[in-house]
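Q: Hi! First time asking for a complex rather than a single chain. Here are the components, and I think there are two in total. Is that enough to go on?
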Amino acid sequence: MKLIAKIIPIKSVRPLAIMNQSDAEELGVFEGDRVRLVAGRKYLTATVQIALGFIEKGYIGICLKSAEDLGVEDGSEVDVIPIPKPASFEYIRKKLDGHKLTREEIYEIVRDIVNDALTEVELTAFVLSSYVHGMDLDEVEWMTRAMIETGETIDFEEGIVVDKHSIGGVPGNKISLIIVPTVASAGLLIPKTASRAITSASGTADTMEVLANVNLSIEEIKEITLRVGGVIAWGGATNIAPADDKIIRVEYPLAIDPRSQLLASVMAKKGAIGAEHVVIDVPVGEGSKVPDVEEGKKLANDFVELGRRLGLNVTCAITYGGQPVGRAVGPALEAWEALKAMEERKGAKSLMEKALGIAGIIFEMVGKTTNGYEYAKEIFESGKTLEKFKQIVEAQGGDPNVRSDDIPIGDKTYDVISPIDGAVAKVYNSRIVKVARAAGAPKDKGAGVLLFKKGGFHVKKGDVLFRIYAEKEWKLDKAIEVALKEPPVVVSGMILERYPSYRWMR
Amino acid sequence: MKLIAKIIPIKSVRPLAIMNQSDAEELGVFEGDRVRLVAGRKYLTATVQIALGFIEKGYIGICLKSAEDLGVEDGSEVDVIPIPKPASFEYIRKKLDGHKLTREEIYEIVRDIVNDALTEVELTAFVLSSYVHGMDLDEVEWMTRAMIETGETIDFEEGIVVDKHSIGGVPGNKISLIIVPTVASAGLLIPKTASRAITSASGTADTMEVLANVNLSIEEIKEITLRVGGVIAWGGATNIAPADDKIIRVEYPLAIDPRSQLLASVMAKKGAIGAEHVVIDVPVGEGSKVPDVEEGKKLANDFVELGRRLGLNVTCAITYGGQPVGRAVGPALEAWEALKAMEERKGAKSLMEKALGIAGIIFEMVGKTTNGYEYAKEIFESGKTLEKFKQIVEAQGGDPNVRSDDIPIGDKTYDVISPIDGAVAKVYNSRIVKVARAAGAPKDKGAGVLLFKKGGFHVKKGDVLFRIYAEKEWKLDKAIEVALKEPPVVVSGMILERYPSYRWMR
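A: Yes, that's all I need. Here is the structure of the assembled complex.
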């Protein structure tokens, strides 16, 4: 069917063919069907959308980018041909019906995800089907391999390549800023790609960006790693495992994170950058992604087995995720806390124990030592971690002479104090994040929360429990409102509860 | 956050807030999140879409209709406020995790579907969750009631109101054109709402539209039914069970039809028009929706029990759906076949047996007779069915004096003949539909297929198996191509297969 192009000044992820109801009926297509748009020798696949009144019969609305790709302008003729759904759609239907997919089927699905050949509804169906029915380790392995192979990869010809990854869920987890230089200063290669915050207050990429450029290409990641031993880059700037970003785009609005996708996503990123030894940090506990150690062990087991199948040596560190790591939450505050610890060669106990513990596991995995924690602690306390961190910052275009106290923190602050004498009964991860985000994190780098009292600490009436930082007055006000409505830090007297709570009637 | 409106010349189903990445980060929202757009005293809820390059920082793209609703124009200021997902989203997540929903939760979901408060991804998640996990009869009952209550309904103050519904899947099913007047001429009220074809060659509404207007309001349906006893209207022109159309829009691209939605959809429509006695036609067999009689019985059982809960007297007719009903497939051809049968007081055996059989069940249900089939046959053969049909056609604005041979049929035809002597071994429902649709049905009313030989018929070499009708030469050519590639009618010699197929090696 020949139609006249009408160019619509929007850009859509997938090409759209916006048609009049009557033309669509004539062509025998419905909303969501695929058509091929042909102009001369150029063509592309588009998804039919029925215009609600603004495209006349005989016309077809196409977006800016499609018009460019087809080389057509307003008034050009475009041939519109119905085409069937891609084969991968049948495989998604198969998974939806609870059947196991083959290697070839999974590869086809992942290729179509990367090429934007699936509509949003179809991709949603795939993610939901793997959420509801799960995938076995064969399927997860194929998924991981397909995700690696459909993106860019790094092959280090020399050196021992290690990596670490946290599955997330615990605020203030700035440990990579300490682990990467500690490990690199011992001669290992650690090309760490990190993510930005989606629902958290700061991703490692957001935190590192306070001090250096994290938008590195895959060539830059390799070059810097070979030169100084380590890097902390934003994975999203590369084309590593590109299917992952597209899947996450669908998971986010559904607030789901299928186990199979979590496994494949992490391992694909680690496999793609050529890591041989990997530590996976699995925070467990209330308010983190994994409720308890038992569940953490199951997940750890899958990571280790998946690593074995992919030729990666994997160890999982099941860590305490019931409250924030260290004291600072928010990009600049976290960068400040990590750098301060490196400068002073000491820091908050939870931060030091976790960062050096994981660095230590890496040292043991590669056979450097049988007491990794002590080995890492020695490096850290000798000042080598700081020295290496400065080299990394410089290699990533930052100022190597930056000092923690130079880091700009939001100058609008508010202290939340304890109303009573007692002890901190609870620190809520999700509430801390809510306050930090209301204050402006991660977009406003200087916004966040600094904890003065964590779980178990004794407090006196009037003690500062935490301080909110913001760059803008109105955001500080909003954050205070959130903090007062749902207190992130709860103090109780020593008697936490009275049971039964009623008093005996006399 | 205050942004400047930029009006985009598109109309979308749900209001969109097209934002610059930087503004979205500043506001802390992601694609798919909800925001409230406020202009003066007017406001609406919109879904965030991140502009790919064409909306500058400080601006917000909104569609024509939203701009009208807000009373803003290009350059007006709009306040953008993030708001949480609706409560129904939590219930969808609950169903996704396999839990049973409560009555209140289902009502909330249905209300939000009707009000377009759920995004396409969220609605997809709901439909998929009920496909994968199913719903029990409590949930289906609540779903049905909620669908009825969120739309228009008819209350007939007098008369016995009956109805019939086919769950579909078998081509050429023009029985309603005979059942409705037969039943109405016996003094019952039958306000039949029908659907248009989505993937078939003709829906009952498409077929009836050849002879009369089917776009009737709910008031017209009631008035005509009270006046002449029956009506055959397009349900889509009314606001009966509006949630159903929105759910179908998501089911179509996924090619799924969850059992629970099928039950709720059918029964909501019947309940809404005030039917007391309903026959459900469940075609079974290869190529129809239900594979065999056993499965048909299970579905029938659910229909009957659901009817009992809703106060509807339901009987299911499990019918043979392995090949088309009658000989004609396509709107005008089907109208022709039905009208011809009424004029001649006889017709194809499969058509007469099914139409009069179902009319007969209705007569038995209301206690008119204990031999419904004979009762219906008498009415039909007396000419009363034709007489009543003409009254209905006239009441719906058609020509009551129309004769079957006046009906315009496509004048481009092609006969497919048998290449051998033998018998018809198979008639493929799906292939017949494919050919009819390629020929232009249902959009071109005169397009379709007329069968001369059906399953079991003996044929001689050169006999016409079926004739393709089209209104346009190029569509006829396409239909011929489809028919030759995948033959809809297959003739075999009497030895259908040789087993083992290899010959003994000597």
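A: The longest strand of chain B covers residues 42-50. Let me know if you'd like any chain examined more closely.
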